Amino acid sequence: MNITRIYAGYLQLLRAREISGILLKHLWQEYLDRSPRLRRLLKSKKKRQIPIKNTPTRLRETIEDLGPTYIKFGQILADRPDLVTERFRNELKKLQSKAIPLDDETAIQLIEKELGRPVEDVFKAFDKQAVASASIGQTYRAILQTGEEVIIKIQRPHIENKIKLDLYLLSHLAKRAIRNYPELAVIDVVGLIDEFGVNILKELNYFNEVNNINRFQDLFKDDPRVHIPKVYTEFTTRRLIVMEFIHGIAPDKIDHLKEAGLDPSIIAKNGADIILKMILRHGFFHADPHPGNLFVMPGNVIAFIDFGMAGVLRPRHMTFLADFSLGFSQRNSKSIARSLVKLCDIKFFDQMEEMEFEIDDLLKGYSSIPFDKLDFSQIMQECINIIVRYELKIPSNIFLLVKALATLQKFATQLQPDLSLGPIIIPYAKNLVLQKYSPKKFASDIYDTLGEYVSLIKEFPRDVREILYHLKQGKITHEITTPKGDSIYKTLKRFTSRISLVILLSGVLISSATLMIYRPDSFLGTVSFTLASIITLYLIIKLLFSSKR
């Protein structure tokens, strides 16, 4: 028998017992809160009065007692209106990692183990008192032998094994629940836990954070408004990361910013533009841009820290954001509804009219507010809430995006109360649309399509031989009729040529129309649109009035 499997089973049993104890304790407290008679009985025996708590508060406290895995899972649920009601989400947003600080001596031993040598050999100075402590890691300040000030983040011992145990138990319970309650399959609890497991295990590997930092450094290497901290890779391991210490002021300390000669208005505009650039130009963004992860350096330069979690957007997600933004700027409920349905990858939605009406009604509630004063993130969240009610599946990254935009809006308006994201987003959205329908992109699509046709032609003889073989075997029977005096070849040739021409002209019309809308001064757009329109009109007249062949 495998000893490792036995030991793993033993650990799972211990953790399951611990979880059961925590759940039973809080369930008993919840039962007491709902049973006044039993509370009075117990109160007569005890002098201390037991405080009554509502169910969302009890749930939050239960999650906190269960540990880091459940805390992080609860934080994710707080941003999922498709899974959790607003009442519970508001309480789950309060989840904080109230970790007991790791003993400094133990932490230093772990640092030395990862470095493979004493801290004195690496650092000229080392502050043995932790700067901050979280559920997964603990941070310290130090100075390298070369004089650079650094932050050291060390992972707690055995935290990865604990989280893996929790993930196994969560997945096991979810699968059991699906078997017993098949209606839960609609929510895809198992898929949610699996996705969460992948993300949290990535966060445990500090090399992933290093990769994120390197990627952001490359994206913003020519932007003087942004500072991404340097990572000292020679000292970094899977469980230890050493990076540049940032001297700066938190953006929510407005008085300190002004005392240092910094401009809150510039900081707000630059911060919003930088994060929107991450989202709409690069499709790769800092997932939690709250004031605790931002510092303002001299010259109004914004420094980012904590890159453990980053959002990645697919082209389809970026297209949605562009279409939604332009629909938002025009207060066009149809455009917004179409962008939301396309986001959910729905080919046909029979409740489109009802959704458009709800979105239109939502927009009318903001009709008295000028566009540059509208809260973009709030309206997007409300539109997402509408689509959730129609039980359409939204990609999980979109919830991360909405959270990032909401956090951005909150921090930016603290610095500049009248700042709105809408006017900043629109130029990026227009650029995305122009890229989508640019001549270069259109040519690329045509090239790809031609490649598919070439492949089809190459495979056609083999496919025909296969069909003829099956016909001889009597496995396929089908009657084909063609117009009198015409051949299959001529019919197909005429059909495909017309279809190809229609596709080509449609693409030219769309591209040129887009250029005319978003670049009215574009000569190319005007000329191409005019020519395509004339040719299309000619073909329509020819098809309508030409004699039958």
What does this structure look like?
With 549 residues, the protein is an alpha+beta fold. The chain has four domains: 3-92, no CATH class; 247-436, no CATH class; 439-474; 479-549. The protein is built from 21 helices and ten strands. The strands form three sheets. Strands 1, 2, 3, 4 and 6 form a five-stranded antiparallel β-sheet that branches. Strands 5-9-8 form a three-stranded mixed β-sheet, covered by helices on one side. A two-stranded antiparallel sheet has the order 7-10. Strand 2 (132-133) and strand 3 form a beta hairpin. The longest helix has 34 residues, at 439-472. The protein is globular.
What descriptors fit this protein?
three-stranded mixed beta sheet; 62% helix; five-stranded antiparallel beta sheet; 10 strands; single chain; 549 residues; 4 domains; alpha+beta; globular
Question: How far is the first residue's CA from the last residue's CA?
Answer: 81 Å
| Unreliable parts | none
The percent of residues in helical segments reads 55-70%
Q: What count of structural domains?
A: 4
Beta-strand level of the residues, as a percent range?
Answer: 5-15%
